[in-house]
Amino acid sequence: MAMIEFQDVQKYYGDFHALKDINLKIEAGETVVLIGPSGSGKSTLIRTVNGLETIQEGKLIVNGQDLADRKTDINRIRKNVGMVFQHFNLYANKTVLENIMLAPRIVLHRPEDENKQVAMQLLDQVGLQSQANKLPAQLSGGQQQRIAIARSLAMKPKCLLFDEPTSALDPEMIDDVLNVMKEIATDSDMTMLVVTHEMGFAREVANRVVFMDDGRILEDDTSEKFFDGEPTNERARQFLGKIITH
Amino acid sequence: MISIFQNYGGELLYGLGQTLLCSIIALFFALIIGSGFAILEVVPNKFFRIIARIYIEVFRNIPLLVITMFFYVVIPMYIVEISGFVSGTIGLTLYSSAFIAETVRSGIQSVDPGQMEGARSTGLSFWQSMRYIVLPQAFRYVIPPLGNQFINLVKNSSVLAFVAGFDLMYQGNVIASDSLQSMSTYLCVGVLYLILTLPLSYYMRYLEKRLA
User: Fold this and answer.
1) Domains of chain A, residue spans
2) Which chain A residues are closer than 8 Å to B107 by Cβ?
3) Cβ–Cβ of A75/B124 closer than 8 Å?
């Protein structure tokens, strides 16, 4: 069964048609990279998957539940679908360790000892165990983003969404974050949907590349076909040409 | 001034006590009610937002004296006998709660929306996100303006004087007409109000520094 499935999804902001006829199926364990020019709807699309944006028409099935159905408990879906944001969104009033431990404690009722152990292990995985007791504001952007990834992982989700996770970072810090993401993609059976402009990452770890423009999906290829063959869509070719020569 | 204190010390002290009591009760409930309506103003449910909006606009835009008179005159006429002190305290509570609600709401809205999204994305409910993430940050922002509201509240408690609430202002009026020393009397009353409000003012400043 697909982890995420869009069926004829339409999304409007008032009169603005933000997502048009979206059909997309992402299988469990797949890593899919979503690219496109700004304003193309990729962030909107990824935010619908965990209900941060609602859809107006169509079906959106995530982990077996239809998000358009009003009876669906969004918090239950979010337990299994983590999200990493462009601006990290770490809790400014909590230490690094508390950022990671809060949701497992409140939502999953994970025992305190185990919770701390899992959190420290995750901090180790992202290389920041020594920062456990600092506040987010005391860390660099790259460090904050790795903490944010650890925070998502602490819920042991089946699926992780990344919304331009490296766009707000200094160039030097991008690799640290991408490496953590690559590890997750290769070492676990996590389903990953990633909005990014990092084409190296897309080529290396993505199973598929989806190209969007003007609210529509114009291209949905395996990453080999997308990068080594040529995208069939003219707009996608143009975009790829620009982004790679830069 | 000294003679006023000597001759009417008991009355002034009693008035000070009533003012303090009224202020503490009103502050306690206004903070709870105000915070409650502030949260209702930002919930996703539109119905609750409208209810909160109506409450706040009504009590913010009617003079405190009118609200208090309503409780002093109308409620005893139709519902239950209440004293001037009680009606004044209720009026002050409702009036101040509307201002506190606006203050707290602006605090909530000055917290980066990303904080709420981050919390929601990990599976916390709206209320859990509010309680653990948004409100603690919002209260830090609103301590200075909230301090202003608290000081206003203490001063506004002088509305009790109009409804025989036996507060500091009421005693001042009584003493002034009894002693015929208006200036000295009201100077004493002013000093006594300062004794209440200055420490409050300094305490809020201390809190602000400590939490910043």
Assistant:
1) 30-38+73-245
2) none
3) yes
Chain A residues lying within 8 Å of B114, measured CB to CB = 85, 87-89
CA A75 to mean position of chain CA atoms: 17
Mutate to test the interface with A, among B108, B115, B122 (most CBs of A within 10 A): B122
The secondary element (H helix, E strand) that includes residue A59 is: strand A57-62
pLDDT at residue A246 above 60? Answer: no
Write the DSSP symbol of residue A229.
S
Burial B130-152 (b: 16+ CB within 10 A, else e): bebbbbbbbebbbbebbbebbbb
Length of chain A equals: 246
State the ipTM, two decimals. 0.89
Question: What architecture is the B2-211 domain classified under in CATH?
Answer: Orthogonal Bundle (1.10)
pLDDT digits (tens, 9 = 90+) for A143-198: 999 999 999 999 999 999 999 999 989 888 899 999 999 999 988 899 999 999 88
Model confidence pLDDT, tens digit, residues B66-95: 999 999 998 888 888 889 999 999 999 999
CB contact under 8 A, A107 and B123: yes
Q: What is the DSSP string of A180-217?
A: HHHHHHHHS--EEEEE---HHHHHHH-SEEEEEETTEE
Architecture of the domain delimited by A30-38+73-245: 3-Layer(aba) Sandwich (3.40)
Average pLDDT in the B183-208 region? 91
A87, B114: Cβ pair inside 8 Å? Answer: yes
Chain B's closest residue to A86, CA to CA, is B114
Residue B74 CA to residue A145 CA, distance in Å, equals: 60
Kindly list the domain boundaries of chain B, sorted by start residue. 2-211
Write the CA distances from B36 to A39, B98, B158, integer angstroms: 38, 10, 26
Distance between CA atoms of B123 and A45, rounded to whole angstroms? Answer: 19
